[in-house]
Amino acid sequence: MRLGQIFIGAGLFGAGLGRCGLVCDSLDEISKYLSPLTTAQCGVPNQRWSDYAAPNASAIFTVGDENDVALIAKGAVKTNTPFLLQSGANGWADTFDLGPGGIIIDVSGLKKITFSKDKTAVTFQAGVTNAEIIDAAWANNARVSVSTCNCVSLLGATLGGGLSRTQGVYGLNVDQLTSMNIVTADGTKKTITAKNEPDLWWAMRGAGANFGIVTSATYKSTPIPQAKNTAWTGPVIFDQSQLEKVIAAMDKLVLEPEMQMDIYFTLSPLDGKPAVLTLPFYLGNEATGRKKFASILKLKPVYEATEVIPYNTWNSAGDAFCIDGGRKPSYTVGLKKLDPATWRKAWNEYYNFYTTYPEANQTLVLSECYSNTKDAKSVKNDGTASYPHRDVKCHAIAIPWYTSPSLDATAIQFGEKIRSLFTKTAGTLKPQSYINFAHGDEPLSQIYGNSLQKLQKLKSKYDPKKRFNQWFTL
Questions:
Q1: Are 370 and 272 in contact (CB under 8 A)?
Q2: Given pLDDT bands bounded at 50, 70 and 90, which one contains residue 43?
Q3: What 3-state class would DSSP assign to 192?
């Protein structure tokens, strides 16, 4: 008897799924057809980065064998059971809707990482986080271009585009992919590349959550000894009275491929009060880094702690951002220009929200800024990826961070206000939003840009029944 039939007979999928007791009674039978490394549980909490609009499932399958992903997905497809793949559990959009009978396929335990002998390629499974690939690369005297937050799933970030501090030099995360092992909408396993599946390859690299489950992938890697695998970076903090000057300087600053910069409205580590924190990054030595960011440094910050640090600590400044739990309904928009007056208005909104609601004292307004010069590899598009926002300089995000559901309406109003302010002076022809930062209420054209029409056509080909329907569904 096939696994899909067992699912139906046991009552795990179908009409009985909504009754937790029946589901739990069925899991032992289902587990007989899966690897002993894979477990299934009912009625357990699903820990995620944000509790706001978090997906709830009748059952969570924690996968310990890569082959089990296809078996579980095929069973769900056969029985029309909604399912969601989960790895880092960091996705914050409000697009999740598993209904009363959906399941979560948790691949966070799939951690295998293998580098090629010459260190120019690395194959890794779906549960690998940015921190884990960084540590493995460091140990192998290699550098892999990854996203900026340690706790995020590398593949999860990649399939939406994948922003990286080194993207100007190496390209976006999607540009690092050379092959993917996926599970398709009918539960079939296949390996895809740019040559054997050019259309599916294009769609996966920017809208991956709509087209397949990636269980493992191969990335480009750069061999480099640890002694040379360094960069200049660190916090540069300003008083809020200096905000307009900082924003004006950032707007004029041309971020060359080796450069990247963040700005935050957050609590100062010096006195715990709201401040303007910037984080310049230069892939090179301190002297050159200070020269490249001279227009920022000359503004006389109240504190600076820049230094040359090793590759395996580049993301450490954001580790406090990795705390699970709390409510974080976030809003974003892409910027080509940074307007000082707009940022002052945003500061006022941030300060008022923070001071009015003490439980929201971890609230952030930030922008990640990247090179968008013509020679930046992240800007160049060879036509093999659907990610549409390569010309955006900065990705602004408002993240109200609190605990009480009673504050949801006010937090949403705050987030929408910040997004609206930034959108008005974004310097783009139309609003552009990076899918991994988006809230979920944006029109699809804002998420997928000029790739939307082709993506919709390919969706009807590769997933006509919309089995993959939990993340900005096409």
A1: no
A2: confident
A3: strand
